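$ ./design --mode recover --in tokens.txt
reading tokens...
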């Protein structure tokens, strides 16, 4: 089932001329006719280097940024130009998890207030009371519910990102947009957050649009991959197809740049379909 469908998305920004010089403003194309589909229960990873347009594409899909042209459909409905209450419902169905957990959490609010904020903004009922809901959300992301009265600064980076995920889950979204959601975390914590997201997705069935530049992370979580450069998608397909048989030269360069402890082990892993034991 297709949850989110983007067709020929274009986003242009005005770039001001240089101060003091006779140089007119120009238009910069950040996203150039990008199309993709996201299905329920699957994770589509948009990958590419910084400046490739992947984060802007995600924001267009979530209606955080208005498109220059193209369309976005959520569950078959064109949401490209929705406003007011109709757009508020889109906000419920499409939630964001941001890169820097501390920047996206109000340092003056308790965790209880933070994770239940979407319920207040959406004017949704809170069965059992705010505290009960907050504790339940914290348990779902493996945080101690007794810490709901604490503030973001009292948590580690990984814990703070779990708070951000709990907040996103509060209104039962159908699509979760994760914009570099693990890039600021240590490798071991990244694995924990990825496992958390996969477990929640298995339970809830939401689609996940996962923005990343780290291909090692993408390989762990993605169902499908779209590779972007210069604002365009240059290759897309299933995770295994893109990683094991890349067709575009840019994709091959990205994969070649992934650090490996021992390249010969990686080659053997590919030959043996993952059944490789470390040499004694």
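writing sequence...
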């Amino acid at each position: 089932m297709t949850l989110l469908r983007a067709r020929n998305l274009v986003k242009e920004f005005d770039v001001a001329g240089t101060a003091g010089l006779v140089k007119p403003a120009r238009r910069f194309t950040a996203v150039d006719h990008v199309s993709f589909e996201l299905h329920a229960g699957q994770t589509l990873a948009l990958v590419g280097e910084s400046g490739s347009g992947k984060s802007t594409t995600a924001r267009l899909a979530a209606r955080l940024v208005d498109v220059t042209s193209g369309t976005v459909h959520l569950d078959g409905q064109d949401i490209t130009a929705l406003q007011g209450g109709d757009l508020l419902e889109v906000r419920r169905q499409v939630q964001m998890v941001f890169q820097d957990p501390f920047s996206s959490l109000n340092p003056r609010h308790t965790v209880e207030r933070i994770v239940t904020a979407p319920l207040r903004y959406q004017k949704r009922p809170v069965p059992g009371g705010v505290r009960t809901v907050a504790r339940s959300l914290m348990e779902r992301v493996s945080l101690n519910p007794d810490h709901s009265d604490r503030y973001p600064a009292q948590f580690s980076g990984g814990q703070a990102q779990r708070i951000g995920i709990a907040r996103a889950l509060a209104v039962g979204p159908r699509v979760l947009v994760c914009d570099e959601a693990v890039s600021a975390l240590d490798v071991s914590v990244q694995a924990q957050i990825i496992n958390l997201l996969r477990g929640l997705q298995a339970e809830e069935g939401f689609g996940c649009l996962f923005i990343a530049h780290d291909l090692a992370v993408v390989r762990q979580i993605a169902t499908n991959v779209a590779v972007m450069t210069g604002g365009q998608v240059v290759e897309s397909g299933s995770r295994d197809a893109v990683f094991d048989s890349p067709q575009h030269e840019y994709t091959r360069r990205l994969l070649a740049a992934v650090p490996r402890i021992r390249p010969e082990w990686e080659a053997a892993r590919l030959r043996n379909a993952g059944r490789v034991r470390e040499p004694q």
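exit 0
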